[in-house]
Structures are given as structure tokens and as C-alpha cells.
Amino acid sequence: MTADSIPKTQKVVLIDGVGDYDVIKYQDSAVPSIGDNELLIKNKYAGINFIEAYFRKGIYPVQLPQILGREATGVVVAKGQSVKNFDIGDKVAYMSSSTFAQYTKYSSSGLISKLPSETTDDQLKVYAAALIQGLTALTFLDEAYKVKEGDYILLYAAAGGVGLLMDQLLKERGAHAIAVVSTEEKEELAKKFGAEYVINSSKEDILKRALEITNDKGVDAVFDSVGKDTFDISLNALKLKGSFVSFGNASGPVPPFALSRLSSKNIRLMRPTLFGYLAEPEDWDHYSKKLFELIDSGKLKIAITKTYPLSEYKIATQELESRKTTGKLVLEIPQ
């Protein structure tokens, strides 16, 4: 593709307000112009994440209108005159805002990796599906709470995108994963991906079962992506000096609470974000290489359950938010 062949307009998915699904729009938008140190990437696949719903609902405020998307794979089609580390035609995987679009501009020194020239379309799809959730799983299990062999770990949404990756990594590290799911189908999936114990929240008491499994000692750590509805359960399931990693709002944000509630068991409470663990270039290099190696070696399976055309993002997020899906959902960008 030459500069002359890059179109002036493109198809994007954006939100133009805060609210329900009606603020999601699939429409034309200008192709962005790039600066001296930027790349223009023609996207092939983009991963879908819960954070897009948080933007739409106003949980995380953003400037409107906002093109959605946080991760993608594609090909460099233009570069600024100062860019030395990428060439036109390079295949890339990267994390950025505004990836639910045919074209995204991005810094050549950002969270971006050059992929081998022989990378296939199937691999591009897998990498697009794996970036945010795979790096979340790796960094949180290394840094938010460094999981040790023999640890008992309570994990919510264990059949979701991050959950299925954590199931595998916890097993690899010799920890006991206690996976919380909501259906029998998800029970089987969590077990298939390595969970040692499974709690079906639709018919079992999460706290009671977690304490039974740990002989009333409680778990070493909780990874809670649900938020408001599970906060008290998670707190009560922890052992003395346990670690509470809260990283999602699927049921809504955790309401304010008295810090003194952490004192009785010396609980360590964290609210990490992935980007805090990727702040330095060496962090991105370390974890992205580790993720790609795990995927390419077959040690980490990426469960892509459905691929939607970009125009059907609204349908995709309705299915995701209604908890009808497992694994990862991906958008295919029109070429």
C-alpha cells in the first residue's frame, strides 16, 4: 500500500455518549494523519474487552466521541520520517486506544512488537486475542501477587478470557486453582484448562466451598474481576495475611468501605492495572516476549470462541456483558 492509496475515511466503532447500547455507532471517520515518530497501522484483528463497556457506562470517563478498542494486530502502511525501528509492510501486535477501526495511528516507541514476516492470519488473530488478557494474567500472577507452588487461589470468571489463561498458568506453577463459574458448561471449560477445583456460583455457596476446600484456613489470594457483588465473599475467603487482587467491575464498582476491615487478618489489598506493569520499555519487552513464547510453544492456549465483523461489535458486547460467552471474542476488521 502506498501513501496515495491510503483512503481519507474509514469505518470505526465509537461511542458518542454515556449510556446503553444505543450510544455505540458504526460509522465513517477520518483516517488519522501521523507525526514524525508515529506509525499508521492497517488493522486486521482487534480483541474485545470488558473495559469498552466501562467506558460506555462512564465507569472510566473518556473524551467523547471515543473510538473503542485497546489491542490489535495489523500491518504498518505508513511511518513518520523519524521512525527507524519499523518499516512499511511490517506485521505488528500492539496495545493502543482506538483499535476498533480500519486504521490506527500509534507511537513507534509504544507498546508494540514487530512480528515475523511469515506470521499467518490465524496467528494475527490469536495474538490480537491474547495481548491484554494474556499480559494481565502474566503480570498479575507475577507482580500483583506472586503465586507460589502450593498456594490456594480463588479465581472469579474462571471461564472468561483472563480466567482461562490464569487457570493454565496456575496449574503450571503448581498452585491450586479454585475456579468460580456460573454454568455447567463453564465448569467443564475451567476444568479442561487446568482448574483443580470448580465452584458453580449458580448452585453453590462460594465462601462455604472455598473454606471447605482449604480446611477452613482460607485461600492465599483472590483474583476478583467481578467487583461489587463478590467483595465481601472474597474478603471472608482469605486466610491470615492473604492477598486480595481486585481488578474488575463486572457487577459494578466496589462501594466505599472502612479500611479497618482489612485489619483482622492483615489483608493485603491491591487494585492493579496492566499498564502500570508495562510502564517501562523493558517491562513490555519482557512480558510480550514471554507471552508470545508461551503461545507459540503451545503451553498457553488462547480460547477464541467467536469472531465478529467490526460492524457487529454491539452484538458482541451484549453477549459478553450478559455472561453468555466464554473465552475471548475478536473483531475482524474489514480490509
TrEMBL record:
Entries under PROSITE patterns matching the protein: QOR_ZETA_CRYSTAL
SUPFAM superfamilies, sorted: GroES-like (SSF50129), NAD(P)-binding Rossmann-fold domains (SSF51735)
InterPro entries reported in the protein's UniProt record: ADH-like_C (IPR013149), ADH-like_N (IPR013154), ER (IPR020843), GroES-like_sf (IPR011032), NAD(P)-bd_dom_sf (IPR036291), QOR-like (IPR047618), Quin_OxRdtase/zeta-crystal_CS (IPR002364)
Keywords assigned by UniProt, alphabetized: NADP, Oxidoreductase
Residue ranges annotated for the Enoyl reductase (ER) domain, each copy included: 19-331
Keyword Oxidoreductase applies: yes
TM stretches of this protein: none
Pfam families referenced in this protein's UniProt entry, alphabetically: ADH_N, ADH_zinc_N
Cellular component GO terms, alphabetical: cytosol
Molecular-function annotations in GO: 2-alkenal reductase [NAD(P)H] activity; mRNA 3'-UTR AU-rich region binding; NADPH binding; quinone reductase (NADPH) activity; zinc ion binding
GO biological process: cellular response to oxidative stress
PANTHER family: QUINONE OXIDOREDUCTASE PIG3-RELATED (PTHR48106), QUINONE OXIDOREDUCTASE-RELATED (PTHR48106:SF13)
Name recorded for this polypeptide: Probable quinone oxidoreductase
Organism: Torulaspora delbrueckii
